[in-house]
Amino acid sequence: MMFGLFFSLKTFAAAMDPRTDTKSQLGAPLRIGESCTFRSFRTNNYKLHFLESPSGIKIVLNTDPNAGDLRDNLSYIYGLYVEYVMKNPLYTPGEPFKCELFLRNLFQFVKTIGL
Amino acid sequence: MPAIYALYVINKSGGLIYNKEFVVMASNNLNDTLRLASIWHSLHAIAAQLSPAPGCTGIELLQADTFDLHCFQTLTGTKMLMVVEPNTPDVDILLRDTIYDLYCDYVLKNPFYEVEMPIRCELFDSNLFQTINNVHRRWGLLH
Fold this sequence. Notes:
Chain A has 115 residues and is of the alpha+beta class. Chain A has 3 helices and 3 strands. Chain A starts with a helix and ends with a helix.
């Protein structure tokens, strides 16, 4: 359900884009980084931040609705993922992961955001 | 620079009943706009279901690279969407207070208007334009 939400939100944002005149047809497949994409949405009781890497890895952070722009923090988390998960020789790309070092650093970082 | 691009009104079953653009923008054709309106209707519902905390009523603000989309849902389930420049201030208040008032006064109180049907009210159009022009003038976009 979450993947469907992001997929549709990306299509929606690309189609709604008021600045680009040359938009592909609604529903046509989109390449990553090619068109306007969404970065967060806020509801009355949570805010969801979204970052998609060039390889299609999506990083999602659910926070309090009053949180500000967390794009830098998301790219830092992506950096942690690259360092501790992708560079782990025992990890097979595409599989679920359970890396202690990644978790430890992630928890430490989330505490420093201070929400 | 803050600017208001467009206003859309979606009825409670997800149909687009009003759309209006206020500045020159890359717009979609009517068919695509209707489809986008019903896509938004379902995204709004899914986001409310995915909430980590109970009592979520749906998306209020969507931030994308080139625009912000503010969504105000009335108590009866009608949604008012406003597409604006990123980081335009006070749009939620404008929607909730001013535009919703105009909708009540000139659309709902119009005896010839049938609820849930497309809005074709001249007075609503003209007052809406005046309001948006006033806001744009305040931001220095119009003289």
